[in-house]
Amino acid sequence: MALERWFRRKRPTRGDDEVSPAGLWLKCAGCMAQIYRKDLIANLYVCPECAHHERMPVDARVAMLADEGTFELWSGRVTPTDALEFVDTEPYVERLVAVQQKTERPDAIITGAAELDGVPVALAVMDFSFLGGSMGSVVGEEIARAAERAAAESRSLISIAASGGARMQEGALSLMQMAKTTVALEALSERRLPFISVLTDPTTGGVTASFATLGDLVVAEPGALICFAGPRVIQQTIKQDLPEGFQRSEFLLGKGMLDDVIPRGVLKARLAVLVRLLRAGLDGTADDGAAAPLRLTTESITTIADELDESAATSAADDADEAAAAEDREREEAPNRATPV
Ligand SMILES: [Zn+2]
Fold this sequence. Notes:
Layout: H1 2-8, H2 21-24, E1 25-27, E2 34-36, H3 37-42, H4 58-65, E3 72-73, H5 92-103, E4 109-116, E5 119-126, H6 137-152, E6 156-163, H7 171-184, H8 186-190, E7 195-203, H9 205-208, E8 217-220, H10 231-238, H11 249-254, E9 260-261, H12 267-285, H13 298-333
Parallel strand pairs: 5-6, 6-7, 7-8, 8-9
Antiparallel strand pairs: 1-2, 3-4, 4-5
Helix pairs in contact: 6-7, 12-13
The protein binds zinc ion.
Zinc ion (ZN) binds next to loops.
């Protein structure tokens, strides 16, 4: 009897409640170190040992980016349907109901208005825990609506991608979202409003091939897998060994596919600077308020790069000044102290 009970006992999993001993500690996928769950959360889901960026839950992502109390939810009124009556190992409708109950949202995205260091923006954040963040009709529609509403309210759009690609259970309907999201972004372009796309681990398939790589700036978190077809598929096709770091953020930055790789700890601050600079540059050139297409020229990119360098140099100089001042203060406060050698 006791043995039977032991077999029936539910195995603890990674997602179990925090009070269970198994949920208290996590193993870092980067360095295999045991990390206290609360430490990982406090460090924005970045390993304190090796800086490996774990996947971040959507709510935590919104809390990290939006100024406190400024987030206003836009999404959630469109719900997915099973137009193809699709069944694989289980019916699509059943999969949907289960994951909707687990995540408490209708589909794999949330969008809304927020302020980012005081700058009005629209956020579109994908949820990888919802059927692999796959883009079906609802995700496409929410992105399109967010882009159009952002344009109407003069907000810059920031999207955070985390997706396995198109949702296969919706067949061709999911592929149509690639065209829909692409067209919707034109509304921002016409109003000369910046769209910054942030790619996180993983960003693949139809999401990479549509809105996620169409940002005026496309940036990524460190170590993120970003691709159309994954490395295993490519390796099996070309039957060759792939270079180290293939399809990861840093590799793609070197190849010119990304504009920057930004660690999560400074993501909010950097996004705020980039949005401000883009808006300042673009507002300055708009003379009659007419809808001219947004064009980033080499000149404007150079100006932005110079301003970023300048701000980095200023903060470095400030740090140096502060260090010198602190040293002076220390010397004044302890004039009789022996000089260290
Ligand atoms: Zn680690």
